[in-house]
Amino acid sequence: MWLKLRERINASAFLICVLVGFATCSYAGHKCAQHNPFINFRRFHRLLNAETYFYPTVSQMVALAKESLDKGEKVVIVGGNSIAMGKGQGKDLWTENLQRRLGPDYKVLNFAQSLMPPLSGPYLAFLSLTQKYNFVFYVAVAEYCSVNDVEEPYQGYPYWWDAYYKKLLPPVPSIENWISERALLTRDKQASDECKLGAYLDSLFYFRDLWTTVGYKYFFTVWTPGTAANFWEPRQLVPDYDPPVLPIAARFYNFNPEIDKPRLKARFNWIYQETAPEQWQLSEDNLFMLKNAMSAQIPTEVRPKMLIIGVRDCPYYVRQDLTQKEQQQLIRTAKQSTKLWRDFGCRAIEAGGDYVDEDFIDDCHLSATGGVKLAKSVAEELSKMEDACR
Amino acid sequence: MQMNKETMLNALLSIILGLLVGIFFHYLLYRFSLPREPFIYANF
């Protein structure tokens, strides 16, 4: 049968059509990159993000934001981790509360994803948009006294190189120099080169934009544990669902000091070094590294448009896990982080200082009531930031 | 006439198969660009 098929195929026509098919897909991908595929966008929930092999591209985030900006709306891009994403909040999403507080002149776009650091895809979309638009703001939840390398891939997805090769970014020599310097320290050079090569090829053939759009609108092609039952379903039909929150008496059932205590202590054990039992000293070396990373990767002119939020941990866990001195140290670190961002020219707030157990669904994620409090604080800061932009 | 019909069918087959292979190569690039290990943040 194979031989018979080979006899019937005209090699020249076949090869030309292979090229035509490939080129048509690339052209379609290029077009997809310029248009927002998302309908009634709410957030990149767990069935629409990296947790289920759906990687929204920077072009798609930019296209979504441009729709609102071109209508004259002011855009607030929300980035950062699962706290910013509103994990567990279901229909009471904090960014929707923020949208209601800000009114119709604003559009709040929640691009945060689980474990996403502050300088990742949403930040790059923000940087891209600041080239042309004045009223675009970036709000991110970040770990205390910490900033990631912008070039570091997010769960294997090279957002920096995606935006860089597609020429979405303004020229920022300090970031490029920073990346070149960091490249010399990279341990896994092969993985890094593969990431770059993939992004470069994507900037030529736009396969990520095309197949992500197809996966969102028509059918998804990758099996994942989270969507195993019907993985082919177009992601636009997959509901944004969070399980109901347990009553407060049963909510913290998974409390485990062996896991939680080291995680909480890690929040202050880098920027502060424990010099004696329960005595900490600010590490000048780490502070210097942090300041260098921040100043290289965040251009001066965009800093007043950035709001960095440090969210305190659930008081139940803090009370159970940490000694009095450790609790004080955690608060000290939170304050140091806010000060650091403010000194640097960004806006920064600490959220959670006055939150109670009911404002959390677990050790760090906010419940509906916590989300309302966060939205209130962010709305107040954004109104001040808007005045600064005029 | 029979020859012409067969030639046309062969050309059509070549075109359709060629296009499908081209699309498949494009899709392969997308699949290769995905991380090898899925990212599992929470239990489903």
Terminal-residue CA separation of chain B = 62 Å
Radius of gyration of chain A: 23 Å
Structural class of chain A: alpha/beta
**Mean pLDDT over the full residue set of chain A:** 94
Say which CATH homologous superfamily of chain A is assigned.
SGNH hydrolase
Low-confidence stretches of chain A are: none
Placed side by side, the strands forming the largest sheet of chain A appear as: 2-1-3-6-7
Describe the sheet with the most strands of chain A: 5 strands, parallel
Strand content of chain B: under 5%
How many β-strands of chain B, per DSSP? 0
Helicity range of chain B: over 70%
CATH fold descriptor of chain A: Rossmann fold
- Unreliable residue stretches of chain B: none
Query: What letter string, H or E per element, gives the SSE order of chain A?
Result: HHHEHHEHEHHHHHHEEHEHHEH
Distance linking N and C termini of chain A: 72 Å
Helix count of chain B equals 1
Main β-sheet of chain B, in a few words? none
Number of strands of chain A: 7
* Name of the CATH architecture of chain A: 3-Layer(aba) Sandwich
CATH class of chain A: Alpha Beta
What is the averaged pLDDT score of chain B? 85
What does this structure look like?
The complex is a heterodimer of chains A (390) and B (44). Chain A is an alpha/beta fold and 390 residues long. Chain A contains 16 helices and seven strands. Chain A has a single domain (28-389), classed as Rossmann fold (3-Layer(aba) Sandwich), CATH 3.40.50.1110. Chain A has a five-stranded parallel sheet with strand order 2-1-3-6-7, with helices on both faces. A two-stranded antiparallel ribbon of chain A has the order 4-5. In chain A, helix 2 (11-34) crosses helix 10, helix 5 crosses helix 16 and helix 8 packs across helix 13 (284-297). The chains are: A alpha/beta (390), B mainly alpha (44). Chains A and B meet through helix 2, helix 9 and helix 10 of A and helix 1 of B.
